[in-house]
Specification:
It is built from 17 helices and twelve strands. It is α/β, with parallel strands linked by helices and 452 residues long. The strands form three sheets. Strands 2, 3, 4, 5 and 6 form a five-stranded parallel beta sheet that branches. Strand 8, helix 7 and strand 9 form a beta-alpha-beta unit. Helix 4 crosses helix 9 and helix 16 runs antiparallel to helix 17. The chain starts with a strand and ends in a 5-residue tail after the last helix. About 1% of the residues have low confidence.
Length: 452
């Protein structure tokens, strides 16, 4: 937990580039997003192209109260992107001047040397170039008076190849046998609170570090900065190193930082004003770090990870993959169960459909058979009705029907009177006789008892 922060300041250095910029801005943005309304200050930044576009988006999103850069190329890059920054020079300036006064730096005699052959400074092929440059330095008058080697990093990782590590890599091609080593990291920490009783002298310096070179320049000692990529080219220009090594050894040029120091004083006044104007805030920042969670990416600020870090990263990645594989297998098993259930249900439904289809086919067959039977019956009936035997047995059938049911026809409408009428209509008799017979039958019919 961080309680009641008032200001977030992105302190300066050569961070804002494609190597480390996303990590540095990511850390700042993490806190800014949790502290809305807090005063945000940026100082002493070197922005290496093309990273100024990402920085410009950061500025648009988080709107720093003031944004300071340490070199003109960074200022120009932001201006072209659409933002006017302020020149602040380097944020370590005051500390470097304290270190200079504590060690009683002066220009005399010796060669002051710092080496760094880490991956962000150069590549493996540059060792031959470094060896050749060291041969030139060894032949200089300053080197013949003595050599002081600066070890700038107090870092246990073997991938950080500062002076001692670089000397080991160079092996026999390192031309100096008798030299003095000064540990700059503990020296820098002690210079603020102890009387070091340390005197450092040098006629010229040659360095692989921006801040070592700036420190020597501020101490009045010309220093040449190795530059083997665009990142260091920008550093060299900001430190006014325009000579090649041979020209520098012939006539060392001392950078003039007086104007930069004046602008630095103006910047410090602006920065102090912004700090004093920053409102107090009652806001706590809580953040949890779960050591069991593997980060999606790992940040290594200088050089490559150590062997231990590589191994641990590999172990973490293996565990992460195993966990993901276990979860994937669990999902596959669950899907397999679901698929089996779906397949069983589909099989049941298919069986039902097939049974229904079979029943439909049976019914259709029966209907078809019934239709065929009905048609056959109709045809047989028609044949019977058209047969001679049917016609010949018509009278006996009518008599049998009358004896059984009391009527001669199928519909039950023709009795004795009706049949007599039909017979009379067919007999060859006169109309008067037919009328008389009809009248007689009518009386006879009316005289019959009911039901006869």
């Amino acid at each position: 937990m961080i309680r009641n922060p008032t200001v977030v300041q992105l302190y300066g250095g050569g961070f804002l580039n494609e190597k480390w910029g996303d990590f540095v801005l990511g850390v700042v943005e993490y806190f800014l997003s949790r502290l809305p309304g807090i005063t945000y200050l940026v100082s002493g930044q070197q922005i290496t192209s093309p990273y100024e576009k990402r920085v410009f988006r950061h500025i648009q999103d988080f709107k720093p109260s003031i944004f300071g850069v340490r070199d003109e190329l960074s200022h120009q890059g932001l201006s072209q992107a659409g933002f006017q920054s302020v020149f602040s020079f380097d944020d370590a300036t005051e500390a470097l001047r304290v270190l200079s006064s504590s060690t009683q730096m002066g220009r005399k005699d010796r060669l002051l040397l710092h080496l760094n052959t880490s991956d962000y400074v150069s590549d493996e092929n540059d060792l031959n170039v470094v060896s050749q440059d060291l041969e030139r330095l060894a032949s200089s008058l300053a080197a013949k008076q003595g050599v002081t080697v600066f070890q700038a990093f107090a870092d246990p990782r073997p991938e950080v190849k500062d002076s001692r590590e670089s000397i080991k890599r160079l092996g026999p091609s390192f031309p100096f046998i008798d030299y003095r080593v000064v540990e700059l990291a503990p020296l820098a920490y002690r210079c603020f609170s102890h009387d070091l009783n340390l005197i450092l002298r040098g006629e010229i310096g040659c360095s692989s570090s921006y801040h070592v070179a700036l420190w020597l320049q501020l101490s009045g000692i010309p220093c040449w900065l190795w530059s083997r990529n665009s990142y260091y080219d920008q550093k060299s220009r900001s430190l006014q190193v325009h000579q090649d090594l041979d020209a520098f050894l012939r006539q060392p040029s001392l950078a003039d930082h007086r104007f930069n120091l004046e602008r630095r004083e103006e910047w410090l006044e602006q920065l102090t004003c912004r700090l004093l104007q920053a409102p107090s805030m009652r806001s706590d920042v809580f953040f949890d770090v779960d050591p069991g969670v593997v980060a999606p990416s790992t940040f290594f600020f200088k050089g490559l990870p150590t062997l231990e870090e590589k191994n641990q990263w590999q172990i973490d990645q293996t565990e992460l993959v195993a966990k993901r594989l276990f979860n994937a297998e669990a999902r596959i098993r669950a899907l397999t169960v679901q698929l089996t259930e779906v397949g069983h249900e589909a099989h049941t439904q298919r069986h039902r459909v097939e049974s229904a289809e079979a029943r439909v086919q049976v019914v259709e067959a029966r209907i078809l058979a019934s239709d065929e039977l009905a048609q056959s019956c109709r045809e047989n009936l028609e044949q019977i009705l058209q047969s001679r035997s049917w016609r010949y047995t018509r009278v006996p059938r009518a008599v049998a029907r009358y004896l059984r049911h009391g009527h001669f026809d199928v519909n039950g409408q023709v009795g004795l009177y009706g049949i007599a009428q039909r017979i009379g209509m067919r007999l060859p008799i006169s109309p008067a006789t037919r009328k008389a017979v009809g009248h007689f039958l009518s009386k006879l019919r009316r005289g019959r008892p009911r039901g006869s």
